């Protein structure tokens, strides 16, 4: 069972958080570091949000939708081959970390090689890591590698929030069934955040809500940031 309890908020508070998220993601966002080895990681600074998911889950598209940029995050031409952590600075208040995709059929040793080495060490030992956004494709069944990643995140004691992608491809009834199935799965993992967010990078579904969720983890806006 999950240890988390979904926070209750008023419509006014929800709107305030959405506006805070809009302002945060409307600001500057720039790639500043790529690390292929653990000893190459940048010095910890702002809170970090890591995006994880199977190859072709739509991770790059969602990051681009969040930031309002067309090519900030780029998908590899060969899924499953990228082994690099890419760091993006969001106005000095939050760092987005694009993790390598997992689960690609042609990738050698799949999850064990890609994640239980450098990735697990990053997840377990990064002091500024606040949350992992775990992306699942709403159109397909949950794979063995997805279950393995959730178990790995439990072991690393890293809070993760499940976000369903490509939700525009499902009818409303089917989407609610999928949400219920994934919510039941989340309750079986102690590190899982209880709420399941539905998103689409095509029509913007869920993007304001995800921005608001991440803005709540960002450093507060200071006078220096406002004036810069």
Please provide the count of β strands: 7
Shape: globular
CATH topology: Rossmann fold
**Integer average pLDDT:** 85
Low-confidence stretches: 1-5, 224-228
| Count of discrete alpha- or pi-helical segments spanning 4 or more residues | 7
How far apart are the first and last residues' alpha carbons, in Å? 45 Å
Secondary structure category: alpha/beta
Give the strand line-up of the largest sheet.
Answer: 1-3-4-2-5-6-7
Structure description:
The structure is a single chain. With 228 residues, the protein is an alpha/beta fold. 36% of the residues lie in helices and 18% in strands. It starts with 10 loop residues before the first helix and ends with a helix.
Explain the layout of strands and helices:
Layout: H1 11-26, E1 29-35, E2 48-53, H2 59-67, E3 85-90, E4 94-98, H3 110-125, E5 129-137, H4 144-156, E6 160-165, H5 172-186, E7 197-198, H6 207-215, H7 223-227
Parallel strand pairs: 2-4, 2-5, 5-6, 6-7
Antiparallel strand pairs: 1-3, 3-4
Helix pairs in contact: 1-6, 3-4
In a few lines, what is going on in this structure?
With 228 residues, the protein is an alpha/beta fold. It has helices spanning 11-26, 59-67, 110-125, 144-156, 172-186, 207-215, 223-227; strands at residues 29-35, 48-53, 85-90, 94-98, 129-137, 160-165, 197-198.
């Amino acid at each position: 069972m999950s240890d988390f309890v979904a926070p209750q908020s008023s419509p006014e508070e929800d709107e305030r958080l959405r506006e805070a998220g809009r302002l945060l993601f409307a600001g500057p966002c720039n790639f500043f570091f790529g690390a292929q080895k653990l000893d190459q990681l940048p010095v910890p600074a702002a809170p970090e949000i890591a995006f994880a998911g199977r190859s072709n889950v739509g991770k790059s598209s969602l990051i681009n939708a969040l930031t309002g940029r067309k090519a900030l995050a780029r998908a590899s031409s060969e899924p499953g081959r990228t082994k690099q952590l890419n760091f993006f600075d969001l106005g000095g208040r939050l760092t987005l970390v694009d993790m390598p995709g997992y689960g690609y059929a042609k990738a050698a040793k799949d999850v064990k090689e890609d994640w239980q080495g450098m990735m697990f060490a990053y997840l377990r030992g990064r002091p500024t890591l606040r949350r992992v956004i775990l992306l699942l494709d709403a159109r397909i069944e949950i794979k063995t590698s997805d279950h393995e990643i959730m178990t790995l995140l439990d072991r690393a004691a890293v809070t993760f929030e499940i976000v369903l992608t490509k939700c525009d491809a499902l009818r409303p009834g089917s989407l609610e069934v999928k949400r219920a199935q994934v919510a039941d799965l989340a309750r079986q993992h102690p590190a899982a955040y209880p709420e399941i967010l539905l998103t689409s990078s095509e029509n913007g579904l869920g993007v304001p809500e995800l921005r608001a969720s991440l803005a709540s983890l960002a450093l507060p806006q200071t006078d220096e940031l406002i004036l810069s």
